[in-house]
Specification:
single chain; alpha/beta; six-stranded parallel sheet; 12% helix
């Protein structure tokens, strides 16, 4: 019996040693580090989850060197608060990615100063208010994603000035009214997604004429009393 107890004690000791660090000593997890297998046990403290945009290191880097700030990518980081007006100072930005956070409030008009940005992603937040007409000043934008928020009102006609657009995503908001006739200018667009709004209609073939928009999902709508085409 004594031999059995001693053998069992050795087995237990060996088992516990396998949960220690490779050097044989246990260690505490670093602050912010996770043991979750889905994030690869990487430290997450530097992301400052749940804080504002201004608290993020990448934003601070842009503040210290506005002219050298070419990309601001902070998606899926649970960032809270509003979209700061200071973003308009980073006029050399080519990419703004704030997708999938917890941002609230309205879009500042200062965003219209980012006329070099090609990728503009503010989708999947809790943004409200109307779409500012200044978005029509984003001369270089090719991908504009504002879907899955709570924007209200009509779509600004100024978005028809964005002639380099290939993708425009406005679905899952609370927009209403007709799509602007100015959208006929968007000859490069391949994705126009506006479904799941309050009462939005568009694609008037009479006023728009020949346009690539007729090949998108909006092509099934006519703008006569916001009635869906039965054809």
């Amino acid at each position: 019996m004594l031999f059995f107890v001693l053998a069992l004690s050795v087995i237990i000791a060996e088992t516990e040693s396998r949960h220690h660090a490779p050097n044989g000593s246990s260690r505490k997890l670093a602050e912010g580090e996770s043991t979750n297998a889905f994030n690869g046990a990487r430290p997450i403290a530097r992301r400052l989850l749940g804080s504002s945009i201004k608290d993020q290191q990448s934003f601070k880097d842009c503040e210290s060197n506005p002219n050298g700030c070419l990309s601001l990518a902070m998606s899926n980081q649970q960032i809270t608060g509003t979209v700061p007006t200071e973003l308009g100072l980073f006029t050399n930005l080519t990419k703004l990615d704030l997708f999938g956070n917890l941002l609230v409030g309205t879009l500042p008009t200062e965003l219209g100063k980012l006329n070099l940005v090609t990728d503009f992603w503010l989708d999947a937040n809790n943004l409200t208010g109307t779409l500012p007409t200044e978005l029509g000043l984003l001369d270089s934008v090719e991908w504009l994603a504002l879907h899955t928020n709570m924007f209200v009102g009509t779509i600004p006609t100024e978005l028809g000035n964005l002639v380099k657009l290939t993708t425009l995503k406005l679905y899952s908001n609370q927009l209403f009214g007709a799509l602007p006739d100015e959208f006929a200018n968007l000859v490069l667009i391949s994705q126009l997604m506006v479904e799941n709004n309050v009462e939005l209609c568009g694609y008037n073939p009479v006023t728009w004429g020949t346009t690539t928009l007729s090949g998108t999902n909006i092509g099934k709508y006519l703008c006569e009393g916001c009635v869906e085409d039965s054809e």
